[in-house]
Design a protein that fits this description.
Low-confidence stretches: none
Number of strands: 5
Order of helices and strands: EHEHEHHHHEHEHHHHH
Mean pLDDT: 91
Number of helices: 12
Strand order of the largest sheet: 1-2-3
Radius of gyration: 22 Å
Length: 341
């Protein structure tokens, strides 16, 4: 029986990010910043999920550009290839290979109950929903299980997919012999949740927000300043954190605190007796101070494609060491003949 990859001495985390274009402030504060912090004390694997991008209609040139841009943004935001594994999903064929095996132990009814598929199929019509969209939670399970991850950072909208991953890992281990670590969903403690500037009761999201509700990290600071000035607040002029009664102001304070590493209570004291205009003006400057040098760093990576390719090649090679060992064990468990070498 083929051995499993050697266990890591630290927690193992896996995160995939779709190449949807420029990252926004919600992506950074809620997901990327905790990821950057985690690379110092966990075995972290981060990939651009370009296979998942095929579940919707796309332009090939745009996908390629967004994939490179996504990697450049992750590096510019602080991911260090010397401390974590960064790669592109399609560069590691084990993802698609394991998906087939897992698909063969997934029930049709089980897959059809995935909420995101049901929502998208209902929104756009079942005739426009591809088989890839239907089975992508199984690919997501393969993404996780290949690396023996024990922690999967998720939001509530992805918790159901992690539960499917857990079910498939346990089912495979029970039926064929242990091959997978059963992962746990993980919400990083203290991770701030950034809301839509125009609808502060909803999270900032490319799919759910209007353009004026999103602060894109690579937008011109003047564009973001205009969005912040027009952010929804309320008729009460007091600047205080109150999610129930003052969600708009609370959101602005959350962004301010996240980008300056200051406490919200400290900001409340600083802006006591001042108006929303002062808060918005200062927040626009805080955002500009963060995003302007970030844009320069991203351009630096994109202007050196050879270096970006080197980073991705090294990351894929490192990823395949673990993914290949897992897949070899899986193939052995299900009864495939070993390849003739």
């Amino acid at each position: 029986m083929q051995p499993l990859p050697a266990p890591s001495t630290t927690a193992r985390r896996i995160t995939g990010i779709k190449p949807t274009g420029d990252l926004h402030l919600g992506n950074y504060v809620g997901a990327i910043r905790p990821m950057v912090a985690a690379q110092y004390d966990t075995t972290s694997t981060i990939f651009i999920a370009d296979l998942h991008a095929l579940t919707v209609e796309h332009d090939p040139k745009t996908l390629a550009a967004r994939t490179r841009n996504g990697v450049a943004q992750l590096l510019a935001l602080g991911l260090d290839p010397a401390r974590c594994t960064v790669f592109v999903q399609s560069h590691v064929p084990e993802h698609a290979e394991l998906q087939w095996v897992l698909g063969c132990i997934t029930g049709f009814g089980e897959a059809s109950r995935m909420t995101q598929f049901k929502d998208k199929a209902a929104r756009h019509g079942s005739d426009r929903a591809s088989v890839g969209l239907f089975t992508y939670p199984i690919l997501q399970a393969a993404d996780i299980l290949l690396y023996q991850a024990d922690r999967v950072p998720v939001g509530e909208d992805q918790r159901q997919h992690v539960e499917l991953t857990r079910d498939l890992a346990q089912r495979f281990n029970s039926r064929f012999g242990r091959a997978f670590t059963v992962p746990e969903p993980y919400i990083p403690p203290g991770a701030a949740k950034i809301q839509d500037l125009q609808d502060p009761t909803s999270k900032m999201s490319k799919s759910g927000s209007t353009p004026t509700g999103i602060v894109n990290l690579l937008d011109d600071p003047k564009v973001n300043a205009k969005k912040i000035r027009s952010a929804v607040t309320d008729a009460d002029r007091e600047i205080r954190y109150d999610l129930e009664h003052k969600p708009g102001v609370s959101n602005l304070l959350t962004i301010y605190a996240a980008l300056t590493d200051r406490k919200i209570s400290e900001l409340e004291g600083e802006y006591a007796g001042r108006g929303y205009g002062d808060l918005k003006k200062d927040l626009a400057e805080v955002v500009a101070t963060f995003t302007a040098p970030l844009a320069e760093r991203v351009r630096g990576y994109l202007d050196d494609p050879a270096e970006l390719d080197r980073v991705l090649a090294a990351g894929a090679a490192r990823a395949r060491e673990v993914a290949g060992a897992t897949l070899e064990a899986v193939y052995d468990r299900v009864g495939f003949l070993p390849p003739v070498r």
